[in-house]
Write a structure and sequence with these properties.
single chain, alpha+beta, 6-stranded mixed sheet, 4-stranded antiparallel sheet, binds ligand BES, binds manganese (II) ion
């Protein structure tokens, strides 16, 4: 596109400063103490969309956090791109593991980001990636090169399961009508190996509670004579995988889509270095389901993981106690055709069934969502592929991701359009972890690539 390089060079300091300002607001959706900051962030996004050239922007209240909606219509006969992103972020804890405060962005270089990366919670997931779209829009409107209509829908509850976005989408079919949905909230293989995400895993998230005696007990007086809820819970969790690391819940794999030999061979072509992978994580071996490679285990196979476990005494020193209760948070990543509600039910039935006598077990479902796979023969994928080819000088590799954006399958169901996942983060960017960061090169590359998507999508739609 005309002048994009010059535009980026001339404006890159401002692009960075504006993102830094956005990253300073702690829009943590999981913690209600940050409600004011969440609202402040929505206001900031609204202002930036107006400045970028939207001719209509509004903040839609929901029972939870507001959804910012903006649009620019240039011609009803031209296609419409709907951009989705989120302005909320994960909680930053454990805070003591951050090298600099999570909401005081700093720029530092890393091995993967020799041009510098911006360190802050939300830098990559998803404020930085969302804001690339705002700046791409600014470029297109300022230089009179916006080739089609645009709509923005930026929500504030993605990190807590998009609990209110579903209703908003269901109630606003006309407003949100579009020809393609564009999201930057995923990653790519490496800066010199561009890839487009073609799949997301589904999710079922549950909390379990095991109750033993009606009060905490002296572990000497009662130990050995009553079921210890923590012992029981860990034993039950251990039973959820067999010796091949298959999940043992009856029916769990019934609907799992098995890939053909050819599809698996195609996947195996993506560059991957096991030694570097282990080195980056400081582990001496990888682990997982027998019969699958690392890249398959974290994308086309379903999983079950404990995300948190607690109970009893965890303070300083020792306390001899048998706790009355033990808890765990468990996530199951799902693959195409598995239904998250059905899986949640299968989990619940099984977990209650394996509870031994002497304890009561409760399963509390949290949230979930379906997986998603996007075809690579669509106009949208072609447009994205062309855009990467021009910006990176290489044709991107299609790659399924292990992460989840549960609302994407609902978009397809309600709005009947395909989603294109143009992510510019790297796995090493530490999203959800301490020291999250986003490469400046990646940020600017995203701003460069996005307008090309608009151009090709409009051309290919003719
Ligand atoms: N942006 C991520 C999802 C993601 C990251 C997908 C990288 C692919 C590659 C998103 O914000 C996220 O964290 N999703 C959650 C699910 C949500 C219901 C909390 C996840 O995947 O754990
Ligand atoms: Mn995200
Ligand atoms: Mn996230």
């Amino acid at each position: 596109m005309k002048d994009i390089q010059t535009y980026i060079t001339q404006n890159k300091d401002r692009f960075l400063n504006e993102l830094v300002e956005l990253l300073k607001i702690p829009s943590i959706s999981a913690d209600s103490a940050y409600k004011t900051d969440v609202l402040k962030t929505a206001e900031a996004v609204k202002l930036r969309l107006e400045q970028a050239g939207c001719d209509f922007v509004e903040i839609n209240e929901t029972p939870g956090n507001p959804i910012v909606y903006g649009e620019k219509t240039i011609d009803k006969n031209l296609p419409t791109v709907l951009v989705y992103g989120h302005y909320d972020v994960q909680p930053p804890d454990p805070i003591n593991l951050w090298d600099s405060p999570p909401f005081e962005p700093v720029i530092k270089t890393t091995d993967k980001h020799p041009d510098g990366a911006i360190f802050a919670r939300g830098a990559c997931d998803d404020k930085g990636q969302m804001y690339m779209h705002v700046k791409a829009m600014e470029f297109m409107t300022n230089t009179n090169q916006l080739p089609c209509n645009v709509k923005f829908m930026i929500e504030g509850e993605e990190e807590v399961g998009s609990v209110n976005l579903g209703d908003f989408v269901k109630n606003n079919h006309d407003k949100l009508k579009n020809d393609v949905i564009l999201i930057s909230d995923t990653g790519m293989i490496a800066n010199d190996v561009p890839s487009i995400t073609t799949g997301l895993r589904g999710l079922s998230y549950v909390e379990v509670e095991v109750t033993g005696p009606n009060r905490d007990l002296h572990s000497g007086l009662y130990g050995g004579a009553v079921a210890n809820p923590i012992n029981v819970l860990t034993k039950m969790i251990a039973q959820l995988h067999d010796e091949n690391n298959h999940i043992t819940i009856p029916g769990f794999y019934d609907r799992v889509e098995e890939l053909s030999k050819e599809e698996r061979a195609e996947m195996a072509k993506a560059p991957f270095n096991l030694e570097n992978y282990k080195k980056a994580l400081d582990i001496d071996a990888v682990y997982g389901e027998a019969g699958y490679t690392t890249n398959e285990r974290n994308s086309i196979r379903p999983t079950l993981d404990v995300n948190g476990i607690w109970g009893g005494y965890t303070g300083e020193g020792a306390k001899t106690v048998i706790a009355s209760k033990a808890y765990a948070k468990i996530s199951m990543r799902l693959v195409p055709n598995q239904d998250w509600k059905e899986i949640t039910n299968l989990f619940q039935t099984h977990f209650e069934a394996i509870a031994p006598e002497g304890v009561k077990v409760k399963v509390n479902p949290h949230h979930g969502g379906q997986g998603y796979v996007t075809p690579i023969d669509s106009i949208g994928y072609q447009a994205a592929s062309n855009a990467y080819r021009d910006a990176f000088g290489k044709t991107p590799i299609p790659q399924r991701s292990g992460g989840s954006i549960p609302i994407v399958s609902l978009f397809e169901q309600e709005l009947k359009s395909k989603t294109i996942l143009m992510g510019f983060g790297l796995d090493s960017d530490a999203i959800h972890s301490p020291n999250e960061h986003f490469g400046i090169w990646n940020y600017l590359k995203g701003i460069e690539t996005i307008p090309l998507f608009y151009k090709y999508f409009t051309e290919l739609s003719k």
